[in-house]
Amino acid sequence: MTLDALRLEVPDILDNATASLADLNEQLAQARLQPHETGLQLVLGLLFRLNRSAMTLLERQRALQSFSDQFRHFAGIYGADTQPPALFAHLCSELAGGFKRLLLQILQGHQPSRPHLAWCLYMAQHFHAQSLLRHYQRYHEPPPHLWRDSHLLYWIGEHQECLDEPVAVTFTPQPANTLRGLYQQMLLLALSNPFHLAEGECFRLFGALARLAGLPRLLPWDEEDAAGPTVDLTESQACLGYDQAPDGDIAYRRHFELGALLVALHEPAPLQSAEERRLLEQVQHHWLGRQQRRHPRAEQIVPCNLVVGLTAIHAQLLEHRPALAPVQMLDASPGGARLLCNPDLAVQLSVGQLALLLTGSTPTLGLVRWRHINEEGLHLGLRYLKGLPRPAWLRRAPSAQTHPGVLQSTPAPGNGWHHGLWLPSDQFDEGENLWLQLPGANNQRGLLLPAANLSTLAVTRHPLQVV
Description:
This is PilZ domain-containing protein. There is one protein chain. The chain is an alpha+beta fold. The chain has 3 domains: about 5-285, no CATH class; about 300-385, Thrombin, subunit H (Beta Barrel); about 390-465. It contains 11 helices and 16 strands. The longest helix has 24 residues, at about 115-135.
């Protein structure tokens, strides 16, 4: 299966469906004067016809904004202490369908502006989030299409580069203010064992997650580091179960990296109520499931140094003494460590950056998994990369300019070795003919660069069979 905006579930346009826009606002105002259930039924009927009527982009957008205002009216009635009726969950679903139809119209236009596209993606996702929340409030499973389309909206935002475009909205309970944050707010809510929460707690938890939900990151899936929640963007569920073997296309699989969120939970939050704090403490163990860590971590404070970036690591392995960043190791395990660094390093230490940890013993190659800045400094989650790192040089021809690389070698069963060649992202293409040279070797070896088996914005790793 491939992801495409046309897979979004939207109502079909019907030839006999007509929605009068001339008196729409008057009809919505009249609905507010009715008893709640009657008014809700009237609004839902109007929206149902509008979603199945042909209209221009501007007409649909203005109408949906009016229905969004009407949603705020009903949301004020069905809060934390009032279980919403099924009609209200249906209204949320219809609003999501309307904004998805609007999204398709925007995408079919010529070069939509990023803010406009981000707003429409956000609004469609927001009403999916509301539908999810209202189903959980009623202790009902959400329909399968909700997660399929929510994943797809995230994927579209990822490819349109508008995941972090801020959107100013006022809804209750408070949503995160970006598409990334809102989608991850939904994931965290779904991971919080919502059917075991008391009445009203799900509503309050959703609001409590708003300021934190932008901190985690969905990272490309890597079989070597499969601990923690896994999201398959083609599935009809929030995350794969811990006993569920991933079998979809790896391009649509993501790790839900929670490290920065788990650090931020313990920071002072003056605007957070005692009830919100209690709820977050109550549910956070569910986010990591039964496999809370692949390796138990030991708390310790150990001063060490960090070499940042592939070029500096290459120089360090050649004993050329590049600049070192002093850091503190706060806890460690066989699989990785949490480091505390100077905040000034944030520019260099992005998620996905390659680093070499120097602790006085054998240097350890690692990849930045998450990061978080607070008053203590820059917190980093470093995932260890098994194997011996060695410097290497790459050329496009035997006498051409050299480019630095790092060879990561681990023993294979028997007498062989597994090798991974780390290179800067986008410097070489898959299938390119290159020449590889290692220190102490007088000759160069030709190779056809294989497809990367791990990629980040900073570096890529290519598997090599024989070196």
